[in-house]
Structures are given as structure tokens and as C-alpha cells.
Amino acid sequence: MNIDIELIQESKIDKVDFNNLAFGKVFSDHMLVCDFADGEWKTPKIMPYGPLSFEPSARVFHYGQAVFEGMKAYKDDNDDVFLFRPDENFHRLNKSGERLAMPPVPEEVFIEGLKKLLKIDNTWIKKGMGNSLYIRPFIIASEGAISASPAEEYKFIIICSPAQSYYAGEVRVIFAEKYSRSADGGVGFAKAAGNYAAQFYPTSLAHKEGYQQIVWTDANTHEYLEEAGTMNVFFRIGNKLITAPTNDRILDGITRKSIIQLAKDYNIEVEIRRVSVAEIKEAARDGELKEIFGSGTAAVINPIKGFKHQNETFELPDLNDSYASFFKDKLLKIQYNILEDKHSWRVKI
Ligand SMILES: *Cc1c(COP(=O)(O)O)cnc(C)c1O
To answer: Is the CB of 191 under 6 A from ligand 1?
Structure first.
């Protein structure tokens, strides 16, 4: 595959304090941009990271025709660089795009383009457990024309942001009673930009009450727990792990499916089924609810310390042998090439 390459004159890397990185604010020297026009994807370009210009009428601004992915590159002690299940991100991006009537990005543009970009910006990937380069591939409708129909021109872009291990502090959540993230037949399964914008307001209300996130419930009854804003959710009752099945309302997280596989590998009982608010509250009252945690690429696993539903609040116990830390340790060690990779999840660059 051809890629046009324009390298930066002088790297910005020396100006970056890698010990004090705010998530998603600093970007590496280069980005990949590939245009779709005249019914085809053109030759991708790797160029210096920087502003792009668009017509104010570009459809992405008006109709939110945009989808994205989130993934990471990891460096081991020998300076080898790895991706974690990148084919999953590639397929999911196009699955999201299909739902928003966007043309699929070719596999070689995504995978080969990303590998080339990471080779060029290799020094931005720092070794040491927890350090990574967060990768944000996305597609936007760039055509300038404000008729409410799918665009005929798109841009596929990959930008990269150095990240440190992500600690969100103690997380407490509200189980949603009024607002919904997604509905049957909707776009909840897609990483569609508008799904996130629509959560900002209800989440800001939760913040005012001292809760960091919302665990969304099914839109029809608000009786079943689905997922959090950017994370799938797991519950541990006794020694059993439970998570909701994915469907058209729930994002099919790669961390989630990896945890389910690891649970099977390590003989931890895991049930994939609907989880009701009533069941979780009852288990909490009985002392059977041991843990709740979220899973996603950014934080890997985020333990949830407590939750609120209607006017009741619940706190979860501190555990020495939590599943959250067990799975986080295993996943990180696979990602950083420390542990055997039985399922061929690592892809070396
Ligand atoms: C990205 C995302 C996740 C987590 O997916 P991973 O592939 O594990 O990073 C979960 N829920 C939502 C809504 C997401 O956007």
C-alpha cells in the first residue's frame, strides 16, 4: 500500500513532560489522514499533527456523522511495540460506521497505516507498565453541504496521545432512573460521537451530587443494568462474575470480552445475562455483592466503590483478593509482553 509521508521539521517531544500528562491533551508529532471522495478511499497521508480546515457546512458539524475508536500501543523492556487485538478495533470502527451510513475503511489503511504511524512516532511510546500511546482513529463526514443525508466525502484520521496509567480516584455511580444512553434499534452499540455528547448533561447532574459516573439502565423499564458511559460493567456476587450481554444498546467492549475469556481461563465462574437493579441491591444488602467494576481501554479496569439508586446508597467492601485487580494485572501483563499470550491478542509492530 502507498502512503504519502511528510515528516515534521522538528519534534515537539522534548517539550513534553511525560511524568505529568493530562489524558488526551498532548498529541504525538504525526497523524494519518485518508480522504474518501468520488466513491473511493484515496492514498493515505502521514503528516505533522496540526489543525485541519473544513467548510462550516461540513456535515459532521450539523448531523454528527462521526464514529471513533480507542486503542493503545504498549512498549516492553526490549523496546518492542505491541497493539492489543487491533483487528477488533478495525472491525468495530466499520460496524459503527455502517450504522451511520459511512463507507468502510479498508483494512490495510487502518492496520498498515497505523503501524507505519507508530514506527514514525515510536519515541512517543514510553516503556514501563502503565505508560502507553493512546490511539484515536475516527471517521468524520467532511463534505460541505447541509442537506440531511449521508455525505459523499469523509476523512479517516488517526491521532495519538501519550498516556500514563489512568487512575480515576474512587468512583461512585448512580444507577440511571430517568435519562437513557441508548434504545432498542438505536446506535448504542456504535462508538458514535453523539452517544457521548448526549451523556454529558445527565453525567454533570450526577457530578453535582458527588457521583462520577452513571450506570445506564434499559430505556424501557430502567430495571436492568447495562453499561457506563465509556465502560462495560461487571458485578461480582459471591465468587460469580456477571455482566450484561451485548446487544444493539450496549457497546461490545474488547476489554469486556478479554475479561470474559480470562475468567474462563482461570476457572472463575462468569454469567452473561441481564442483571437487574433489584438483584444488585438485594445482594448488596445481604453482603453478597463483593465488587462492581468497569472495563475499557483507557483505564483497563475501574473499581466502583459505591452506588446510588433512588434514595438509597450502598458502599462496597474493600477486598484483598478482588477480581478487579486480578484481571487488571493479567491484562496489563499480556499487553506489556510479560505474560504468555495464549489467545494471540498481542500484535507486534
Ligand atoms: C469504548 C467503550 C467501551 C469499552 O470498550 P473497549 O473496547 O473495552 O475499550 C465500553 N462502553 C462504551 C460506551 C464505549 O464507548
So the answer is: yes
User: pLDDT by residue (tens digit) across 244-281?
Assistant: 999 999 999 999 999 999 999 999 999 999 999 999 99
Q: Cβ(75) to ligand 1 under 6 A?
A: no
> Between the CA of residue 251 and those of 179, 306, 308, 349, what are the distances in Å?
18, 23, 23, 27
pTM above 0.85, yes or no: yes
Contact 247, 274 (CB under 8 A): no
Q: Which of ligand 1's atoms lies nearest the C-alpha of 254?
A: 7
Atom of ligand 1 at shortest range from CA of 232: 10
Q: 475479561: which residue's cell?
A: 259
Nearest-10 crossing angle of helices 107-120, 86-99 = 130
Write the pLDDT tens digit of every residue in 102-128: 999 999 999 999 999 999 999 999 999
Whether 254 lines ligand 1, by a CB cut-off of 6 Å, is yes
* Cβ atoms of 121 and 5 closer than 8 Å: no
> What's the average model confidence in pLDDT over 120-140?
96
Classify residue 194 by burial, with Cβ atoms within 10 Å: 0-12, 13-18, 19+.
middle
Report d(CA 19, CA 298) in Å as an integer.
Answer: 17
Whether the CB of 253 sits within 6 Å of ligand 1: yes
The number of angstroms, rounded, from the C-alpha of 261 to the middle of its chain's C-alpha atoms is: 18
Does the CB atom of residue 188 touch ligand 1 within 6 A? no
Q: Grid coordinates representing 316?
A: 462496597
Tell whether the model's pLDDT for residue 77 goes beyond 80.
Answer: yes
Q: Look at ligand 1, atom 1, and give the residue with the nearest C-alpha.
A: 230
- Calculate the average pLDDT of the chain: 96
User: Is the CB of residue 213 below 6 angstroms from any atom belonging to ligand 1?
Assistant: no
Q: Is 233 in the pocket of ligand 1 (CB under 6 A)?
A: no
Domains of the chain and CATH, by start: 4-163 (3.30.470.10), 171-335 (3.20.10.10)
| Most informative mutation of 216, 232, 248 for ligand 1 (most atoms within 8 A of CB) | 232
φ, ψ for residue 135, nearest 5 deg: -115, 130
Q: Ligand 1 centroid to 191 CA: how many Å? A: 8
